[in-house]
Amino acid sequence: MLVAKVVHIIINTRRGRKFYMTTLGNNGFILFCSLFLAGYLIHGATLYDYSATIECHKQPLDPQYGGGLIANPGFDKGIEAWKIDGHVKIEARESGGNKFIVAYNRTTPYSVSQSFHLKKGLYYAFSAWVQLSEGSDTVVAMIYNSAQKTVIIVGSVIAKSGCWSMIKGGLTVDHNAPSVLHFQSNNTKSELRVDSVSLKEFTKYEWQENRLKNIEKVRKRTLRVNVSNKDGKKIGGAKIKIQQRKLQFVIGCATPSSILMSESYQKWFVSRFTTAVFDNEMKWYYVEGLQGHENYSTPDAMLKFFEDHGIDVRGHTVLWGADNIQRWVKDLPPRQLLSESVRRMGSIMSRYAGKLVAWDVVNENLHHPLFEERLGKNASAMFYKIASSLDSKATMFLNEFNTLEHPGDMVSIPSKYVEKLQEIKAFPGNEELVIGIGLQGHFDSHPNIPYVRAVFDLLGETKMPIWLTELNVMPCSNQAYYLEEIMREAFAHPAVKGMMIWIGWKPDRCNEMCLLNYELQNSPSGDVVDKLFAEWKTTNLTGVTDKEGSFEVKVFHGDYEITVYNPNSGANVTKEVQVYDDRSETFHVSISL
């Protein structure tokens, strides 16, 4: 019989938080810990820390996971384990009780570095805090992998002077190899300060277990059915059948107008998805290729089809400053561009007001800032104000690419996305506007899954609803596998409220990712979608009430049909309910027979 000796140790960290350690031993010991970090409780070393911040703090928080693989992560030992990177001087400093490292006299973007060994098959979560001594600039954290001879950007942030900004990201590697972490900033006039660095490894099992635990926590709720007779007497032994009719979490799909011409494709689509978005049919160039000649016949017909089948529709897109817009729009002088843009908004949004669940108002605003360049920095903010007045029921989205899928695209990194979001909301009248975070999600052949989760963490701090608006994975041998990984990451994260799959199917071809072939048979990616639909649905659930007349079960958030049958009296009642996420633990349904 094992007799455990329990010893409790409380260690105060350098920033006042407590680190609890418990040892249990007989012929050895087991060490485990519980770490309170940024208000999030972690048991042991296996739970992922979802905490993040988009605010600039007076002092940085402690390193997540105690630093993980990083040696001397909080610089309590000066510059030990850290090296000079490039033409620069480094030193440890202390301010307000906080210790950090400083790179100064920089003649190149480089600053400090640390070496370690990374392993194939593991998931790495990264975080750090950075500050500049003057001005502001993007600070990039990157890791050089010697086996692949490649540099992987693991995270970035707009750093400022006078406060600390958090970088959060992650990576995986394809080869076991010595690797080096670097921090870079092009603002060489400024000192670059770094603190609370962390790189935590997770096994594939640990990473997936975190997802499963979070799904149980954020996508399910306890449903309690209470059955009684007309006099209020509780009925035990009543038979319960629970059938989910609709998942609260949105899973939708894009489609071109070809859906109007194929009854088989229509059946395939409406049997799966709750929301649709049109490929191009609502875009300005589609309905008004020639100035003053509008034709809404195709989007009208598409919308009617989806309305008839109870499918919600996203509006994509009201305005777009990309190069492929109409020549006549590009050639307009500023005053006319403004008037024509406002006319366009009034035309399409008034036509479909109250009929759509969302609008992409100014598409790809960070990459294609045409309206800001021609009309001034508040152009988009003004358009969001106009849009919200034209359709107050729909959610207005800021739809952008590469924020989620490509950390190397400095134009749309999370902190720049947040900066644009805050700029729009600061415009008079927009302060209380809910702006949906539209992350397109056009992934290449090797998605960075840890980075995806970190971006959800960061953008989730805006408290705005996140949707993957154009999800696809480019053709590759692992396309279906990566699609499943991304969909699972999104479904497991509390900040994500929906995802739209971007397949662009047509009878003769499909764009990039096909869920079905030309004969309307599922592809491997289509099988993944069907598998996840089945997994995330509570169907044909049966049970019997206890002697207290109750039956309790945990179900996915959604719309349900509950049927109760009393075998003693033969009475039968069916009731429709919505079991949604409202932060309370149990949803009570009372049924009288």
TrEMBL record:
The keyword Protein biosynthesis does not apply. GO terms for biological process: polysaccharide catabolic process. Gene3D superfamilies: Galactose-binding domain-like, Glycosidases. One of its GO terms (molecular function) is endo-1,4-beta-xylanase activity. Residues 241-532 form the GH10 domain. Keywords: Carbohydrate metabolism, Hydrolase, Membrane, Polysaccharide degradation, Repeat, Transmembrane, Transmembrane helix. The chain crosses the membrane at residues 24-42. InterPro entries: CenC_carb-bd (IPR003305), Galactose-bd-like_sf (IPR008979), GH (IPR017853), GH10 (IPR044846), GH10_dom (IPR001000). It comes from the Eukaryota. PROSITE patterns: GH10_2. SUPFAM superfamilies: (Trans)glycosidases, Galactose-binding domain-like. Belongs to the glycosyl hydrolase 10 (cellulase F) family. This is GH10 domain-containing protein. It comes from Solanum stoloniferum.
